Every structure is written in structure tokens, then in C-alpha cells.
Amino acid sequence: MEQIKNDKLVLTVSEHGAELQSIKDENGKEYLWDGDEKYWNRHSPILFPLVCGLWKDTYRCEGHTYHLSRHGFARDTDFQLIAKGADRVTFALTESEETLKVYPYHFNLAVTYRLDGNKIHVVWHVENTDVRPIYFQIGGHPAFLVPGAKKGEHLQGRLRFDNPAPQRLYGNTGGCITNGHFPVKTDNGVWAFTEESFNDDAVIFDKSQLHHVEILGNDDKPVVTLDFKTPAVGIWSPAGKHAPFVCVEPWYGIHDWAEYDGEFKDKYLMNKLLPGASFMSEYTITIK
Questions:
Q1: Cα distances (angstroms) measured from residue 77 to each of 6, 22, 106, 144, 226
Q2: Omega before 49 cis (within 30°)?
Q3: What are the GO MF terms of this UniProt record (predicted)?
Q4: Which of 90, 118, 212, 275 has its CA 20 to 30 A from that of 192?
Q5: Residue boundaries of the structural domains of the chain
């Protein structure tokens, strides 16, 4: 485990999955889910080289067929610590014999966490170290404690979106999305959710509908905010488990369409890098 801090926040990050484990303020208050396996045994996994699911966990690439489980392998792989300062830390992952069995590309993935006052910058950097174009998706999956919620009790919470009339996709057909957008009812951008809101799995917004989400306290003031430029975002909590957290997930990628049988490179919201090129983006968590 690695820890970085400033006068506002203390972060703990694991080399396994380069996964954020804890966000505490100067008073020791925790904001990130604790990973209790009774409910969900993760905190904030990195999704790479796949976001969400493939149809039948299968994809096709250059005449070969591969099998890759939901959200890819990065979250279950040990990264290497490559840089650390008082207020930032960077981990990296490159291809291995094991990754090449399920993902045939050479790459370098770096994940940086940087503190700036009460803000956390989560930076992704993907570099193509192959001799051909590579294709990938990447996303975040941070789980935040819902103010007032407790383990074992029915979940209720409120989020504020920067779009008062967003429309969702459904991704519950074999773990893949289906055509059609459906309105999500808000009160001038404030969405009151319960665990039943996730009976159809994550609530998914594509087409760059959202770029700012606030987790609201009981007084409807923001406790945590997320800012991102991703084309898609998922909102999720495990339905029926009485878990006291909600995930706000910025995604450069999304599920397969149900029954998709095309090439990996042609998936919806796929990213392409030419040899020697790199991709960099970030999302920001603000603790209020």
C-alpha cells in the first residue's frame, strides 16, 4: 500500500490494480467504500482494456477469437510503482505472457493519483508500444459512501446531474446494452435513487450527456463531486444487497451491443492508438 497526503486529504492506493483504497479528510472521515466482500469486495477498480461486458465474453481481432471477462484484467493485476512524491503517486502496467493470451497488444498503462487541495486528479495514460494500431477502452469505478446510509439498511440517496433531463441505456441483456434511450426523471437535475434503481444493473448514460455529478448530503449540499470528460458514465450500486455506497463511473468505452459479432476494433466507443502514440485523460474527485 502507498499513501499520499496534503493538509486536506489522505489517500491510500494498492499496487494490486493500482486501486484507490481510501479517501480520508483531515479529520479522518472516510469517503470511499471499504470493500466489504459481503456487499462488493472492491473500492475503485481501473477498467482496462475493456469497460463492461463482451457478448458471451468473446471478441474477434485480426482473425483470432479471444475471451475476456467483464471490465478487463487491469483490476486484477499487480502494477509497478514507478514514481511517488508527497502529493502524487504513479503506477504502471505493461503487457505480459498472461495478458497477451487475452489481449494481443503491447502497451503501457500508467495511472496517477495527484492531490490538489481538496481535489483528487485521477490520470490515465495509455501508450501504444506495439508496431500496429492498438484498440482499448478504459474507465473508473469509484465507490463512495452515501451520506446517512448504513450496511444492511435499505439504500436511499440523491445525486445532482449537470443535465436535468438525461436519457439512459439498459445494459442487462447478457451483460450488454440494447438499443433505445429512456428518460431518467430528475427534479431539476437532482435524482433520488434507491437500490431498486439498479434492478436492471447500472444506469448508463452515453453521448456525453453528463460531465459533472454531485453526491448530496441530507441537506442537499454536495459531499463529493466528480468531473469528467468521458463520453459515457455509469451509476451503480448492487441491487438488493442493502449496500451503503454508490459508484459514479467515468468511461471511455461501454458494453457490447447485445448479440454483437463484429470486430473488437469496431465496438461502440472504442479507442485507437497508432504505434508510438499515447492517450491521456483524467477525472477529478472533489471532497467538499
A1: 28, 19, 16, 23, 26
A2: yes
A3: carbohydrate binding; isomerase activity
A4: 118
A5: 2-287
